[in-house]
Specification:
Blueprint: H1 2-29, H2 32-53, H3 65-77, H4 81-90, H5 95-103, H6 105-116, H7 123-140, H8 149-171, H9 177-198, H10 210-234, H11 239-246, H12 248-261, H13 266-291
Helix pairs in contact: 1-5, 1-10, 1-11, 1-12, 2-4, 2-9, 2-10, 3-8, 3-9, 4-8, 5-7, 5-8, 5-12, 6-8, 6-11, 7-12, 7-13, 9-10
Length: about 300
């Protein structure tokens, strides 16, 4: 089952790499809050259809009060607040910087998981992750002074998601990934709609055009692919390991952006080298992790 979890999270990383790159175009053609709400509603429709088709909908009736509270919390700090912050921030910064900041989440998750879930992670994984981060720093020429309000919003969103993922990992001990996804996206969508009503922006939904609808559907389907692979994989492997594998997605976003720009210099070549070193370290360590089911992550 560990192999299944690793492969699913690797799929999440690939989806994530393309999702942020594509999402940047989405927030450029539609209000980021409306974009977030509609995209999440698309996921809610898909996950509700899935629950109905496999007859798992009935299991909601057997949830305990504790389960409902956890799902509400997951919806609030995972399915609403960070989405609003992230896509607003993405509209104010670049896709590559947004992806880089988002992928630092593995650091916060590792800390939270060590404290609350007593997880430990291999030093080799951490070294690989640091190589990936360093590579992105060189590629993006990131310096502290270059970070703006959009980057700050994405950083705050990343903290929320880190906390939510640790809570979700705990919740997955009792509930199926599909139920956790439903709770995250259903309650998250309700909170986002309440935000739009309170801020008098709900009327903007009626102003979107066909092109914007297409963008929300496409990105909504991509988001569903992200959450279904992520939470299913999270069921089987430590959340700190999953977050580190997810870091591979930032490399995809960065390389896609470089291809779009069409230019590369020595600094970016150095950054690319660090990224590939990180990928090699993580993937080879994952190989031995998969071959030895008794491998201890410490």
């Amino acid at each position: 089952m560990k192999t299944k979890g690793v492969l699913l999270i690797l799929s999440t990383a690939i989806i994530s790499g393309f999702a942020i790159f594509i999402g940047k175009f989405g927030v450029s053609v539609i209000n980021p809050y409306i974009f977030t709400a509609l995209k999440n509603i698309v996921v809610v429709i898909i996950i509700c259809s899935l629950l109905l088709s496999i007859k798992e909908w009935k299991s909601l009736k057997s949830l305990s009060k504790k389960n409902w509270i956890l799902l509400l919390i997951i919806g609030l700090i995972g399915g609403s607040i960070p989405f609003l912050l992230f896509f607003k921030g993405l509209s104010l910064t670049t896709a590559v910087q947004g992806s880089f900041i988002h992928k630092t989440m593995f650091i916060y998750i590792a800390v939270f998981a060590a404290i609350f879930l007593k997880e430990k992670i291999s030093k080799k994984f951490l070294i690989g992750g640091l190589f990936l981060l360093l590579g992105n720093v060189f590629l993006l020429r990131l310096i502290p002074g270059s970070l703006g309000i959009g980057d700050l919003l994405i950083l705050i969103a990343t903290f929320f998601w880190a906390a939510e993922n640790v809570i979700s990992k705990h919740t997955l001990k009792e509930l199926s990934p599909r139920i956790v996804i439903w709770g995250r996206m259903f309650f998250g969508s309700i909170f986002i709609l309440l935000f739009l009503i309170i801020t008098n922006q709900i009327y903007l939904i009626s102003t979107i055009n066909i092109s914007q609808i297409i963008w929300t559907i496409v990105t909504g389907v991509i988001l569903f692919g992200y959450v279904i692979t992520w939470y299913t994989g999270l069921k089987y492997i430590p959340v700190s390991l999953a977050a580190l594998i997810l870091l591979l997605g930032s490399s995809i976003t960065t390389l896609l952006s470089l291809v779009q720009v069409g230019t590369i210099d020595f600094t970016q070549i150095l950054g690319t080298t660090f990224i590939f070193l990180g990928i090699i370290i993580i993937t080879t360590t994952l190989y031995f992790f998969r071959k030895n089911s008794c491998l201890e992550l410490k």
